[in-house]
Amino acid sequence: MWIGSALAGIGGQLTIVTVMLHVFDLTASTFAVAMIAVAGLVPMILAGLYGGMLADAFDRRRVALVAATIAFCATVLLATLTWTHSETIWWLYGLSMIIAASNSVSMATRTAIVPRLIPMDQLAAASALNGIAFGITVMVGPAVAGMLVALTGFGWTYTIDVILMMSMFLGLWTLPALMPEGTIVRPGLASLVDGWRFLQRAGNIRMQYLLDITAMTFGQPLALFPALGTVILGGGALTTGILTAAVAVGTFISSLFSGRVVHYRWHGRGIERAIQAYGGSIALFGAILLLGAFLPPASEHVPHLALIVAACTALALSGAADNVSSIYRNTMMQAAVPDAMRGRLQGIFIIVVAGGPRVGALYAGTLATITTLWFPPLIGGFLVIGLAAMLARLSPRFRAYDALSPEP
């Protein structure tokens, strides 16, 4: 399942970056690129909630297979439309929404499966292993997407995603049937209310949600990357892919050297400090872009190489910090939440993890449209540092969270 997810993840990243470049190619608008993420937010939220209920009521293997099939078919249609020159911005938006919703269900279900496959004391190490997979997918996928779009166009990139997504089914087919343990509540209002009541009692889980939303809302500059490759940094689509991959380089390296991280027991404090480090890295990225605004204009063929290297370094640091936070947040979710409730809480968790960057895309895209490209990450990074400190201070119980005695 891990290998299949990693290979499919590379293809998914190809499509994410390619759709961004595709929309920017059709519209030349950073706001239109940001709206890709916003358009998928509502269906992703609904799918995450309902998908979590499905994962707590039915065979999780089957739920994950159905969700993966829908995402696969949407990607096939995306490739077909592109090859036949029938794509429009509305098709790109619509299919991105379907893929986002399907992935929400698939990710929630897959994550709920993990604690059934490995011992509880290895969950932190498994989260670090997933960080390696995520680092590889985001490091390879966007860079390859940038090169493929620049050299061959959009159609081949979508087609390669279709091929890579086939590997996702291998991992799922090899699993046994996995029914939830404990009292099963059928999908519907009663199941949703049951999950909400649990979340009301789960102060530690709520706090990690709030901290992650804060970081992703004010510290997620992904929607700016296509414009940065055209305006401040230069290099075009290739720079867009390199910037996105830089985040994954930090994730990958921090996962490789995560031995001391996974043995740190105080996960609440670890999340707070990692998110503050993330905010500092994003503020540094904004400061580098501010410096670039005073340099001669760049172009696709004449990029500012030194600035690109500096920007990639700041983004790599942000990826490393976010990965440390992710290791602790995933472990807390899997260890502190009962199995019968895990699908619904993972559904909400996926909404937070995937929905936060979409809100962040709206923040960055809108603010950059009315100000300038360097302003959203610079001010956003400082907001993340301050808000993370304030939220953690309001919850002493969260700061005292002990992985040896997990409590939701």
Main beta-sheet annotation: none
Classify the beta-strand content into a percent band.
under 5%
Weakly predicted, low-confidence segments: none
Q: How many domains comprise the coordinates?
A: 1
What is the name of the CATH architecture?
Up-down Bundle
CATH level 1 class label? Mainly Alpha
Radius of gyration: 20 Å
Please provide a written account of the structure:
By secondary structure, the protein is an all-alpha fold. It has one domain (2-169, 190-399): Up-down Bundle (Growth Hormone, Chain: A), CATH 1.20.1250.20. It is 78% helix and 0% strand. It starts with a helix and ends in a 9-residue tail after the last helix. 60% of the residues are buried.
What labels describe this entry?
408 residues, Growth Hormone, Chain: A, 0% strand
In summary, what is this structure?
By secondary structure, the protein is mainly alpha-helical.
Helix and strand arrangement:
Elements: H1 2-27, H2 30-39, H3 41-55, H4 60-83, H5 89-113, H6 123-151, H7 154-173, H8 189-201, H9 203-218, H10 225-228, H11 236-256, H12 259-262, H13 267-292, H14 305-336, H15 339-370, H16 375-393, H17 396-399
Helix pairs in contact: 1-2, 1-6, 1-7, 2-5, 2-15, 3-5, 3-15, 4-5, 4-7, 5-15, 6-11, 6-14, 9-13, 9-15, 9-16, 11-14, 13-14, 13-16
